[in-house]
User: Fold this.
Amino acid sequence: MPEPTQQLSPLAITTPDVQTRRLRWAQGILLLFHVTGFLGLAFSRNPSFYLQFVPLNLLLTVGLLFAFQPRRTPAFWSFCLMVMVVGFLVEVVGIRTGLLFGHYEYGKTLGIKWLEVPLMIGVNWLMLTYCTGILARYLPIPNILRAVVAALLMVGLDICIEPVAVRYDFWRWQYDVIPLLNFKGWLAVSFILQVYFNRVEFDKRNPLVAFVYLVQLLFFFALGMLL
Assistant:
C-alpha cells in the first residue's frame, strides 16, 4: 500500500512569512517615528512639539524590541530590571557627585524625574545594553572581548547623541563643555553591564536589534551634522 504524501502544516508554511511581516511592520513604525522626529527637530519652527514625544519613542522602541525577544523568561526580566535600576542609580550618583561622568544636569526633554534623574534614563540604559550586547554576540570571540566591543558600541552612540542632547535639553554640561570623563565613565559602566549581560542565561537573539541600533545612530549623527 503506498505511503500517504507528507504535507507541511499551514502553520509551518505561514509562520516564517508572518514573522517577516511583523519585523517589516516594526521596522516601518520605528523608521516613521525617527524620520518624523528628525524632520521636526531639524526643520520645524517649533521643535518642542516633537521633543515631547521623546519618552514615548523610547518606550515604543523598547516595547518592539521585547516583542521580538524569544522566550521572555524570568531570567530575562530580572536582567531588564537590574540594568534599569543600575543605570538609573549610576546617573543619580553622577548628577550628585560629578565623579562618574562630570558635572551635568538633566533638562525637561526626557520627562518625569526622580532624584533629579529622568525615569526614562534607566530604560535608555537597558535599550543600549541589550542592543549592543546582542550585536556583539555575532562575533566569534570570548565573552570578555564581546563585552569590550559592546561597550565601545555604546560609547560610539553616545558620542553621536551628546551634541543633540545638549542642543535639545536632554541634559546640560557645566560650562557647556562635554568632558572626556563622560566617555570614560560611559565605557566603564557599559563594560560592567555587558559582563553582566553575558553572564545571565537567556536567549540572546533578536532580529530587530541591528535596525534599532542603526536607526538610532543615523538619527543622532544626522541631527548632529546639522547643528
User: Anything to note?
Assistant: Confidence is low (pLDDT under 50) at residues 1-14. The beta strands are 104-106, 113-114, 117-118, 171-173.
